[in-house]
Design brief:
By secondary structure, this protein is of the alpha+beta class. It has three helices and eight strands. A six-stranded antiparallel beta sheet has the order 1-2-6-7-8-4. A hairpin with a 2-residue loop joins β6 and β7. The longest helix is centred in the middle third of the chain and has 19 residues. It holds the Pfam family ApeP-like. InterPro entries: ApeP-like_dehydratase (IPR016776), HotDog_dom_sf (IPR029069).
């Protein structure tokens, strides 16, 4: 391992499409909007997909059960595994092998208009056949940048919210858990 493995990557931000390409199920089910930071051992992502009316995981009352957030963590872990593998010249999807030690602190994810989910996954073990990740998901309200003009809040403005905000503060812990990802051989 080189010292650069621990340095956060500051490459150009990945588009939602590029993030979706790292997931086995593609764009329709892609829940991650943005990667805030990643290195060899960790990735931190954020999203407002819990606010989108086309989110396939919403209940009839347009709410998201907190237990479903493990799918968000799994996607963050799969994106992380994909980014690491792509740096090694590999492009293989990762699949959930096990979910363990899940604790959620609320029944439903709040759905305030400027609410953001922050997903952080840390590798505990990683090799060519898979990885074990510890996961935490926080919820917070995005704060608009002070130099941005207030834009009207519409149902389709969730992605714009990600571009025009600073990181969330006063985060609320929603979920913790552990994921085992399996990377099948080629």
């Amino acid at each position: 391992m080189t010292s650069s493995d621990n340095q956060p990557h500051s490459q150009s931000p990945l588009t939602r499409e590029a993030i979706a390409a790292l997931l086995p199920h593609g764009n329709e089910m892609s829940l991650i909007d943005r990667i805030l930071q990643w290195d060899h051992h960790r990735i931190v992502c954020c999203t407002t997909s819990h606010l989108r009316s086309d989110n396939p995981l919403l209940t009839d009352g347009n709410t998201l059960k907190t237990s479903i957030l493990m799918e968000y963590a799994a996607q963050a872990a799969a994106v992380h595994a994909g980014l690491i593998n792509s740096n090694l010249g590999l492009t293989r999807p990762a699949y959930i092998g096990a979910i363990k030690n899940v604790e959620w602190h609320y029944d439903e994810v709040p759905n305030e208009p400027n609410g953001v989910l922050e997903i952080a996954v840390n590798t505990e073990l990683c090799n060519a056949t898979g990885a074990i990740y510890d996961c935490t998901i926080h919820y917070g309200l995005a704060q608009k940048k002070t130099d941005e003009k207030d834009a009207p809040n519409t149902e389709n403005s969730a992605p714009d919210l990600m571009e025009n905000t600073i990181p969330i503060e006063n985060k609320t812990l929603l979920l913790t858990g552990r994921l085992v990802l399996v990377i099948p051989p080629q």
